[in-house]
Design a protein that fits this description.
Largest sheet: 7 strands, mixed
Helix content: 25-40%
Radius of gyration: 15 Å
Strand order of the largest sheet: 1-2-3-4-5-7-6
Shape: globular
């Protein structure tokens, strides 16, 4: 589905559902942007173990229908992100793996992706959205209407956790 609700502005031409064919481009975007974006808020000791785990595209997410990519006028992927339904609370969704090209920060890419995800999740009947925001993204999610609920450690692998902020937003029903 192409996002036609928000006219093209900034570097984003449109937002569409991702496909498994987007794996290499999303992988490159995550691997190129996360190290640069997260280094000011996390010590090297955390990043050295976490980045290899969080800077990779998730094939199942790419083919889920609820993960999206933002493309520029040349068709290049410059952002990605989406949502999934909570496994236990079917009225709750989770914002997932949002990234914008580090060279195009503060140009509306992540805002466009998250706004699209929130609209689609609301239309699907979800009543609230949760996000486990990186420390770097807390202010962004606050600007998107999320409220912080407190710090948390996201388990990535046995013995490896990643500090985040649990955030939540009530969704308006269509």
């Amino acid at each position: 589905m192409v996002d036609k609700l928000i006219p093209a502005a900034g570097p984003v031409r449109h937002v569409r559902a991702s496909t498994p064919a987007d794996l290499a481009a999303v992988d490159a975007l995550l691997a190129g942007s996360y190290p640069r974006l997260l280094k000011r808020d996390y010590p090297p000791s955390v990043l050295v173990t976490a980045l290899p785990l969080i800077s990779r595209a998730q094939p199942a997410l790419l083919g889920s229908g609820t993960y999206y990519v933002a493309e520029d006028a040349q068709g290049e992927i410059i952002g990605a992100g989406g949502w999934s339904v909570d496994r236990q609370l079917r009225h709750r969704g989770h914002i997932r793996h949002v990234v914008a090209d580090h060279r195009l920060q503060r140009r509306g890419i992540a805002r466009r992706l998250v706004g699209h995800a929130l609209r689609i999740a609301s239309a699907a009947g979800l009543r609230e959205m949760e996000c486990w925001a990186t420390l770097t993204a807390v202010r962004f999610y606050e600007a998107m209407g999320f409220a912080g609920e407190g710090p948390m450690e996201v388990p990535l692998a046995p013995g490896i956790t990643f500090p985040c902020m649990r955030m939540r937003q009530r969704l308006e029903q269509p």
